[in-house]
Amino acid sequence: MATESQARKVPSERGRALDWREWNFDGVTQAELVACCYWEYARESAFIRDALRDGYECVRRDVEAGDKVDLAKQTRPDWCGKLDKIQSIGYPADVFVRGFCFGRGRRSDVPDAPPITGSFPDPWQSLADDEKKERARGPRFREHFRPAPVNLADWRMAREIVRRGDTWAGEQLRQWKEYEKRYLYKNAEGYLRANPGAPDLPDSPEMRPGFFIGDAETVLLEIAWNEFTNESIADYFRKVLPKLRPPTAPAPDRRGHKPRDVRADLTRLAAMRLLSRYTPVEILGNARRPELAECAPIHKTKQFASDKWGDPTKWRDARREVLERLHQLFPFLPADEKPLSWRREK
């Protein structure tokens, strides 16, 4: 086992040391495992980083403007749509979203407020112990106290759906006006016609009349209560439920939250980050070349103690598995997004 000084960082002869908090997860307690995993994988996403950074900057500008901000004339900024997608995964999003509007390292000045700071995307292990405990509380609460599958929503949620619908309709109208101006003309009879060579009008994605808060989606439904019995409605609902379920919220399989599984996810993440600094030969050595001395502490940690980590192919496999796991944890990410540590630094 590594000594504390050995485990704290990989000293670099080349001036490219990788902070121990980026790769050595031996010290993460079992109570923090799930939260740490979501936090560290979120740090690898440019989509998540950009959304929370843009959100902070927007909030900061509005606070500085004070009374000069006309909320009635404000359009919904892009980062709000991204935040909707992030929060569609439910409680796990709270692990890294909470406090994003405080700014780096700052916390609320409200008395008795939770010890949350604007610390994302700093390493999980750089957080204060009380903040880690508070952020880890959400996923553990979710594991033990699951909500009812269906509840009657608060009426105020309908107002939010209407607001989002108005924003969506306004954007569709804007796109139509732009298309009309560029590609359409009125003929002698006064009918709109497309110019020769004009592209087809872009398809408009349907707006889903609902939104997520935490794990729950509030969505508009039409139910013909007077025409069908409870049993008939339940039978029909069971048939159409796969179509009603949003693609960003696939049916949970209840796997992947065992401590061993989560530690494996973090170890693979550590392997990918180390590969962003070193080649497998530099980490492991071979018959012609010993490992770099600066990589020796890696093999003294518990997470890399298994013999399998002596095989270079396992390191490459881990990198590929991190990419898959990133999109499993955050299914809303663009399909082509790769972890920020995917490529080796030059």
Beta-strand percentage range = 5-15%
Strand order of the largest sheet: 1-2
**Low-pLDDT residue spans:** 1-15
Put simply, the count of helices is 11
The chain-level structural class is mainly alpha
- The helicity comes to 40-55%
Distance between the termini: 31 Å
The dominant shape is globular
Mean pLDDT: 83
Q: What is the total domain count? A: 3
As a whole number of angstroms, the C-alpha radius of gyration is 25 Å
The total beta strand count reads: 6
The biggest sheet amounts to: 2 strands, antiparallel
User: Can you write the helix and strand succession as a string?
Assistant: HEEHHHHHHEEEEHHHH
Please summarize what this structure is:
The chain is mostly helical and 346 residues long. 44% of the residues lie in helices and 5% in strands.
What does this structure look like?
The chain contains eleven helices and six strands. Strand 5 and strand 6 (216-219) form a beta hairpin. It is mostly helical and 346 residues long. 23% of the residues are buried. It folds into three domains: 21-144, no CATH class; 156-198 and 206-244, no CATH class; 259-329, no CATH class. Residues 1-15 have low confidence and may be disordered.
